[in-house]
Design a protein that fits this description.
Layout (H helix, E strand, L loop, with lengths): L4 E7 L2 E6 L10 H16 L4 E6 L19 H14 L4 E5 L3 E2 L1 H8 L2 E4 L10 E3 L2 H4 L5 H11 L1 H8 L5 E2 H7 L4 E2 L2 H11 L4 H14 L6 H16 L1
Parallel strand pairs: 2-3, 3-4, 4-6, 5-7, 6-9
Antiparallel strand pairs: 1-2, 7-8
Helix pairs in contact: 1-2, 2-3, 5-6, 9-10
C-alpha cells in the first residue's frame, strides 16, 4: 500500500484502512482518494467483514486538498467515486474519528455506514464537523445535501451549509451523526459485533440506505440482494 494509506487486518475479518498523510492534515488529494478506494477493495478481497476508516495525526481530514493542481479538474469526480465506492462496498464501513473533519473530510465520514468518535478527553484536538461551503464558494451536490439531512436532521443541515455552523462532539452525539464516543478498543469490539451480522442482509441494508441518500442502486440490484438475504437465512 502507498505512503498515503495503510491497510492492515486487525483481527479476523476486521480491517483498518488508515489515512497516513498527517503532515498535510490528511487532506484528500486525487492520489489519496484512489489509494483509499484500492485499499477498500483489497480488504474485501482479503475477506473483510467490516472495515474501519481512521486517520493518523490530530485531524481526521482537513478536507479537499486545495493546493493540488487537480483541485479544479479530477479531484471532485474522484471524491464522488470514492463515496460511491464506500456506499457500494459489500461490508459495513465504520469511521473512527479522533479530530476535526472538515469539508470533504466530513463528507468522507458521512459516506461511512456508522461513525464513532473518540472521547473528548483523549482527542489531541477538539473533535468537530464542518462543511464551510458557503464561505468558500463551493457548489454542493444533491446527494451530499440529502445525506446530511438524513444524518443530522434538516435544521442542522441548514445551519451547517447555509450558516456555516460547526457540529461539535456533543452535537454529533445528540443528533445521532456519531453513535457513541469510546476508546479504540471499544470501537473495535462494536465493529466486531457488527461484522457478525448476516453478510447478505448487511448488503441488502447498505443498498437501501444508499438509495435513500441519493446514491442509488438499481431496483433490480436491490431486489436481488433482498431475495439473497432471505435465501441465505433459510439455508
Amino acid at each position: 500500500m502507498s505512503s498515503l494509506v495503510a491497510a492492515v487486518e486487525l483481527e479476523s475479518g476486521m480491517w483498518s484502512v488508515r489515512l497516513t498523510r498527517a503532515e498535510k492534515r490528511n487532506a484528500l488529494s486525487v492520489a489519496l482518494c484512489k489509494d483509499l478506494a484500492m485499499a477498500l477493495d483489497a480488504a474485501v478481497e482479503a475477506g473483510a467483514s467490516t472495515v474501519l476508516i481512521e486517520a493518523d495525526g490530530p485531524v481526521f481530514s482537513a478536507g479537499a486538498d486545495l493546493t493540488s493542481q487537480d483541485f479544479q479538474g479530477e479531484l471532485y469526480p474522484t471524491l464522488e467515486a470514492l463515496f460511491a465506492k464506500i456506499a457500494r462496498l459489500p461490508v459495513p464501513v465504520i469511521a473512527w474519528i479522533e479530530g476535526p473533519a472538515i469539508g470533504a473530510g466530513m463528507m468522507l465520514a458521512m459516506a461511512c455506514d456508522i461513525r464513532f468518535v473518540a472521547p473528548a478527553a483523549s482527542a489531541a484536538q477538539a473533535i468537530s464537523f464542518s462543511l464551510p461551503v458557503a464561505k468558500m464558494g463551493i457548489g454542493v451536490d444533491p446527494a451530499t445535501v440529502r445525506n446530511l439531512q438524513l444524518l443530522v436532521g434538516g435544521s442542522w443541515a441548514r445551519r451547517m451549509l447555509i450558516a456555516g455552523e460547526i457540529l461539535s462532539l456533543e452535537d454529533a452525539l445528540s443528533t445521532g451523526f456519531a453513535i457513541s464516543a469510546g476508546s479504540r478498543e471499544e470501537v473495535m469490539a462494536a465493529a466486531a459485533q457488527i461484522g457478525k451480522g448476516s453478510p447478505h442482509t448487511l448488503l441488502n441494508l447498505k443498498m437501501e440506505f444508499a438509495t435513500s441518500s441519493s446514491r442509488p442502486f438499481s431496483e433490480e440490484e436491490r431486489n436481488a440482494a433482498r431475495v439473497e438475504a432471505w435465501r441465505a437465512r433459510q439455508q
